[in-house]
Every structure is written in C-alpha cells, then in structure tokens.
Amino acid sequence: MKKIINTPHAPAPIGPYNQAVLSGNTLYTSGQIALHPETMELITDTIEAETKQVMENMKAVLAAADLTFENVIKTSIFISDMNNFAKINAVYGEYFNEATAPARETVEVANLPKFVNVEISMIAVK
User: What gap in Å lies between CA 117 and CA 115, rounded to an integer?
Assistant: First the structure.
C-alpha cells in the first residue's frame, strides 16, 4: 500500500506527480528544484542559494513523512554544470552527518525542469 505525501511547506507539484510516496517504511521523493514554496518563484541568485532552497524543500517533504535527513539512505543529484559540483556539495554537506551520510550519485545533465542548475531526489527509510 502506498501513502501520498504532500506538504504546503514545499513547492506544489507542477505536473502529474506528488512530492513523495511512502511505501511501507520507505519514502521515495520526487526531485526538488529551487522553487520557493510560498511564491513558486525560482531562487537562482547563486548556486549556493539555489542548492539551499532545494535542500530546504526536501527537508519539508521529509518532515511531512515524520522523517529527517538522518533517515535518508540514497540521494540522486542532477546538475547542469559539473563545475558547480564543489559549491553544491558544500551546501548539501551541511544537511548530513558525514559519518552517516547516504549513498549518492551526482550526474551532469543537459537540462533540468525550468532550466535550473540543480535537482535532488531522495530515498529514506523509517
């Protein structure tokens, strides 16, 4: 059985998907981009600000399922320019304890929704 997770504290879906789906004890999140949840405006002033907004959106989705970043077992990071990797990684790293950080892949892609610079999705377990 699956439970749909949606919260007003993260951007509303802009297509036929939900913010996350809980199946048993496993949460699968949709990718988050740097949309501010209240205004639905993109936060792209700097790659650091953009990444922080993505992570704050993800934090809200996790919280809606009564989870935290400590529950995350896998992340997928999609970036439009690998030259931004170090800056993205620095902000991302602020949200995890390095000793218990999840598995992860980071992939450079040609384009992302709304032509943003970073999108992140996660899998977490209760």
Answer: 7
Q: What is the DSSP letter of 100?
A: G
pLDDT band at 43 (very low <50, low <70, confident <90, very high): very high
Contact 70, 63 (CB under 8 A): no
Architecture of domain 2-125: 2-Layer Sandwich (3.30)
Q: Is the pLDDT of residue 67 over 90?
A: yes
d(CA 101, CA 113): 27
- Using CA atoms, how far apart are residues 57 and 59, in angstroms rounded to an integer? 5
Residue 1 has pLDDT above 90, yes or no: no
Domain boundaries, the chain: 2-125
Q: Do 60 and 86 meet the contact criterion of CB atoms below 8 Å apart?
A: no
Nearest-CA neighbor of 53 among 88, 100, 21? 88
Q: What is the pLDDT of residue 20?
A: 98
